[in-house]
Amino acid sequence: MMMTMGDRLRELRLRGHYSQEEVARQIGITRSAYSHYEINNRQPVYETLMKLATLFGVSLDYIIGGEQSKRESATLTPETIEIIRLLSSMDQDKRRASIDRMMAAIKQVD
């Protein structure tokens, strides 16, 4: 049986131990709007789809029904997903500064 986009969103949310409210807050929409995505009453706009893919650590293709990247998402650790989530919540200047600090820290370790 083919999974709908709503099925995939629900599966990803439950796998990440998120409530609908938490997902909605992370991507900047209402819980009601998000719940409509899970029950296939509405389709998210592209920007929202991208935020969901980032939050859940999967490709856009996987969310919309492609076969891809369960393998790809398996390479993302919980820490990596948390870093992506934190970076996506920052404005562009803070995000750039944070990335620069991480790169400097990595160079110190090498």
Provide a brief overview of the structure.
The chain is an all-alpha fold. It is built from eight helices and no strands.
Notes on the protein architecture:
This protein has 110 residues and is mainly α. Helices cover 70% and strands 0% of the residues. The protein is built from 8 helices and no strands. It has helices at residues 5-15, 20-27, 31-38, 46-56, 60-64, 70-74, 78-88, 92-109.
Helix content: over 70%
Give the total of beta strands.
Answer: 0
Low-pLDDT regions: 68-74
Sheet of most strands? none
Approximate strand percentage: under 5%
Rg computed from alpha carbons, rounded to a whole number of angstroms = 15 Å
Secondary-structure element string: HHHHHHHH
Give me the secondary-structure category.
Answer: mainly alpha
Any idea what the shape is?
Answer: elongated
Distance between the terminal alpha carbons, to the nearest Å? Answer: 48 Å
By DSSP (H or I, 4+ residues per run), the number of helices equals: 8
Mean pLDDT: 84
